[in-house]
Amino acid sequence: MRAEGVSRETQRRLDAFQALVQKWSPRINLVSRGDLDHLRDRHIADSIQVADAGPRSVDHWVDLGSGGGFPGIVVSIMRPDVSRMTLVESDARKTAFLRTCVRDLELRDVSIVNKRIENLQPMVADVISARAVAHLTALLQLASPHLIPDGVALFPKGANWKDEIEAARRDWDFDFDAIPSTTSPTASILSVRNIRHAPK
């Protein structure tokens, strides 16, 4: 299946990335076995939406818990305009997979960091993304030390995103937009700004 409105080179990289996931996943569980047949219309399509939701000018984009490269590798393919891309993953096997993707897909200005998110020095990011990593409350805790003051965090969320917003408001103040997902009628990408601890 061809992604809409992309160049041949971008499509080639998306196809090559899909093949890498299919090759590596049985060994290191990048996605569930059932999802291997739905990579393009589920994981890759979701990740393209995250890439599209980012601002047009980005100096440093950080993807937390990159795992199988969703959305980090897909963002790197779709957004060559991003000056620097950093993918953070604590699992050494998945880190090896991500490094293979960067090498084989010839992605430029992409760094892989094999650390737990909690152990990172401040990343000074314009954009932070994370998909299927944690509940929104935990994501705000993880992301807030690394965003510049006018930065944005992009978190794809499923049908319960409104409940996650309500729960996160107990500990955090933030502004957000909910961008409707094109892959699920109940899902949204949360675009979160101005993250700060709620007054007690």
Automatic annotation (TrEMBL):
Keyword Protein biosynthesis belongs to the record: no
Cell compartments where the protein resides: Cytoplasm
Positions with a binding annotation for S-adenosyl-L-methionine: G65, F70, I117, E118, R131
Coiled-coil zones: none
Signal peptide: none
GO molecular function: rRNA (guanine-N7-)-methyltransferase activity
GO cellular component terms, semicolon-separated: cytosol
Parts of the chain that traverse the membrane: none
Annotated EC: 2.1.1.170
Keyword line: Cytoplasm, Methyltransferase, rRNA processing, S-adenosyl-L-methionine, Transferase
Catalytic activity: guanosine(527) in 16S rRNA + S-adenosyl-L-methionine = N(7)-methylguanosine(527) in 16S rRNA + S-adenosyl-L-homocysteine
Role summary: Specifically methylates the N7 position of guanine in position 527 of 16S rRNA.
Homology family: Belongs to the methyltransferase superfamily. RNA methyltransferase RsmG family.
Name of the protein in its database record: Ribosomal RNA small subunit methyltransferase G
